[in-house]
Write a structure and sequence with these properties.
Blueprint (H helix, E strand, L loop, with lengths): L2 H8 L6 E6 L1 E9 L5 E2 L6 E2 L2 E10 H11 L3 E9 L2 H11 L4 E9 L6 E7 L7 E2 L3 E3 L7 H15 L4 E6 L11 H13 L4 E6 L10 E5 H7 L8 H15 L3 E4 L5 E4 L5 E4 L13 H14 L4 H16 L10 H5 L8
Parallel strand pairs: 1-6, 1-11, 2-8, 6-7, 11-12, 12-13, 13-14
Antiparallel strand pairs: 2-5, 3-4, 8-9, 8-10, 14-15, 15-16
Helix pairs in contact: 2-8, 4-5, 6-7, 8-9
Length: 342
């Protein structure tokens, strides 16, 4: 991609309106100073002293963070939080971001805010070390009245957005935003609004989803087609092409150090290799940066290859941000354009 073409694509981002629908959570980091370690007088157990606490939107919020970093004009939030301190902190973080609308971010007294609490041991000059994570989740089905509100919100944003990203982050089916009822609503909206780009990702797999653009990894691709994970890039390209032809929508597959493959219903396939490593890495958030960059680029008129190239560069930026769930700005991308594998 030439610098001129890159500039042409990203200049359109400020005019885009993109919705992020899914499981927003709070990423809370507890920075521990090991030099202040103590032993509890009462229990005799080690005490970790937290010297700094920082928080940011996570889960679907990580996709949103990347859209904001790219300069997308308006980002619509469709999701829910609990009526609790973590929910207040999460919504405050969302509202602090430029261009973000929380009009459709619902507060539910009968749900708790999905939270990842990440203790980090931080030493000067060293890479942070993450200890066991503490998660707070919902384990009961999403109430039907809340589901109905989410579907109504989805319809409202789909009517005015250039792209809709759907991200399922929860492990237990029917406990988050992406319920069977919401998926059925997506199928109806897609049939009604053929010009709106829908792009979806789910940590539980995308089998049974409506005909939308799909982003997944190689293991998930194999599961979609009831076969082992692709053993080579060529195998992944053939499988992605088969899936794209069947669904009538583009398919994107991340393959770690082997890069990203993609296919669209016309039969076009693309492979962009991973950029070389430049130091220590932390893969948390890399897939979300891919999702955000694919959606923004495609909505801005990028070709399949151009979108995948930008997603590959963004992923390379994010994996080198250690101890946080990172983002890639357009300035970050511009600095690595000449390293895109040919």
């Amino acid at each position: 991609m030439t610098p001129e073409r890159f500039a042409e694509i990203v200049a359109r981002y400020k005019g885009l309106r993109v919705a992020v629908v899914g499981d927003f959570c709070l990423d809370r980091y507890l920075e521990i100073d090991p030099d202040r370690a103590e032993t509890s007088i009462e229990t005799g157990l080690p005490v970790y002293n937290v010297v700094n606490v920082r928080a940011q939107p996570g889960g679907a919020g990580t996709v949103l963070n990347n859209l904001v970093a790219l300069g997308v004009g308006v980002v619509e939030v469709v999701g829910f939080r609990g009526d609790d301190g973590e929910g207040y902190e999460l919504e405050r973080g969302l509202n602090a971001l430029s261009g973000v609308s929380t009009e459709h971010f619902h507060t539910a007294a009968d749900r708790r805010t999905f939270t990842y609490c990440k203790p980090l041991v931080v030493r000067p000059g060293a890479v942070p070390v993450e200890l066991n994570r503490l998660d707070s989740k919902n384990w009961t089905p999403t109430p039907k009245p809340l589901e109905a509100r989410l579907i109504e919100s989805l319809r409202a944003v789909a009517a005015r957005c250039d792209a809709v990203i759907v991200l399922e982050q929860v492990d237990a089916a029917e406990t988050g935003v992406v319920t069977r009822g919401l998926l059925d609503a997506i199928g109806r909206i897609v049939a009604e609004r053929l010009g709106v780009l829908f792009l979806a990702d789910s940590r539980r797999g995308l089998k049974g989803w409506p005909a939308v653009g799909l982003k997944m990894n190689a293991v998930e691709l194999g599961a979609m087609l009831d076969r082992p994970p692709a053993g080579s890039v060529d195998d992944a390209l053939r499988a992605a092409a088969e899936l794209a032809e069947g669904s009538g929508r583009p398919v994107f597959v991340t393959m770690a150090e082997r890069g990203i493959v993609a296919a669209d219903p016309t039969g076009e396939t693309v492979h962009v290799g991973a950029l070389p490593l430049r130091g220590p890495i932390d893969v948390v958030g890399a897939g979300d940066s891919v999702m955000a960059n694919l959606a923004a680029a495609l909505a801005a008129g990028a070709s399949l290859r151009e979108a995948v190239e930008l997603a590959a560069v963004a992923s390379s930026v994010v994996v080198h941000q250690v101890g946080t769930t990172g983002v890639a700005t357009t300035e970050d991308l511009a600095g690595l354009l000449d390293r895109i594998p040919s």
